[in-house]
Automatic annotation (TrEMBL):
Record's protein name: Pantothenate synthetase
Enzyme class of the recorded protein, top EC level: ligase
Residues at the active site: H35 (proton donor)
Intracellular or extracellular location(s): Cytoplasm
E.C. designation(s): 6.3.2.1
Keyword Metal-binding: no
Keyword hit for Transcription: no
One annotated GO molecular function: pantoate-beta-alanine ligase activity
NCBIfam families: panC (TIGR00018)
Chain positions recorded as beta-alanine binding sites: Q59
Length: 281
């Protein structure tokens, strides 16, 4: 595996592999099994695998955990090598954003819901870095996990709406044995909170099962919220059900329904979701 830190080095590598299919896996590092699922799928489906590690300041708000976000480049490099990554792009902030252009990308209505309600501007920053990576790498396919379902929906919509020549590949959420979704932020949970955190997925399961049985969305969400409140010390940011991937509240005549929730613990905000295929219920 080759590790590069500059755009010129990255493009020199890609030019030397011109004509090959490229799978891109963008990450913010601190890799875990969820990232490995993306890398492994990219490895199977492409000639070349490019992965980026960049803690993107554009998607963090002023009171968020940019400086605290976990980093371990040695461990990340080891995992990426084992996963068969061909080139690991690890740029600095100044390399990615050498000047302020004054031009912004706005994620629009899809970014005003779920995580976007408490993280204004977050998805604008996501699209900023994704646009740069797509232009720099020009991948055949790009891989994203379903754990970040709203991000995935926004990227899919953005790519389709603006004709980016890349296929977005959804990869299912990877979970711990007890159901907790793999996340770099899990490291910030106390021992007590780590035990409680499994109830986020359990609450979503209760909500989806209730909705499938009764088709009463308000009752389903109420039961999910109650489970979190009764079994954790966390504070609910949201628990909602929306059509997927267009994130609307009207669930009539839709193919997929997203049940999603976010919970604040003392030093971590965890998200999780379940996507229900309506034709299967």
């Amino acid at each position: 595996m080759k590790t590069v830190q500059t755009i010129n080095e990255l493009q020199d590598f890609l030019y030397s592999n011109k004509g090959k299919t490229i799978g891109l896996v963008p990450t913010m590092g601190y890799l875990h099994e969820g990232h490995l699922a993306l890398l492994n799928k990219a490895r199977v489906e492409n000639d070349i695998v490019v992965s980026s590690i960049f803690v993107n300041p554009a998607q963090f708000g002023p009171n968020e955990d940019l400086d605290r976000y976990p980093r371990d480049i040695e461990h990340d490099t080891e995992l990426a090598t084992k996963a068969g990554v061909d080139v690991l792009f690890v740029p600095s902030v100044s390399e990615m954003y050498p000047f302020e252009s004054g031009i912004s990308i706005h994620a629009g209505e899809l970014s005003t819901k779920l995580c976007g309600e408490s993280r204004p501007g977050h998805f604008d920053g996501v699209l900023k870095v994704i646009t740069k990576l797509f232009h720099l790498v020009q991948p055949t396919k790009a891989y994203f996990g379903q754990k970040d379902a709203q991000q995935l929906a926004i990227i899919e919509t953005f790519v389709q709406g603006y004709n980016f020549p890349v296929q977005i590949v959804r990869v299912p959420t990877v979970r711990e044995a007890d159901g907790l979704a793999k996340s770099s932020r899990n490291v910030f949970l106390s021992e007590k909170e780590r035990v409680e955190a499994i109830h986020l997925y359990k609450a979503l399961t209760i909500a989806t099962e209730t909705w499938i049985e009764t088709k009463n969305i308000q009752d389903a969400l109420a039961k999910g919220k109650a489970h979190i409140e009764q079994n954790t010390s966390g504070r609910i940011d949201y628990m909602q059900a929306l059509s997927y991937p267009n994130l609307q509240t009207d669930l009539n005549n839709v193919e997929q329904v997203l049940f999603a929730s976010a919970v604040f613990f003392e030093n971590a905000r965890l998200i999780d979701n379940i996507i229900v295929e309506v034709k299967d219920v």
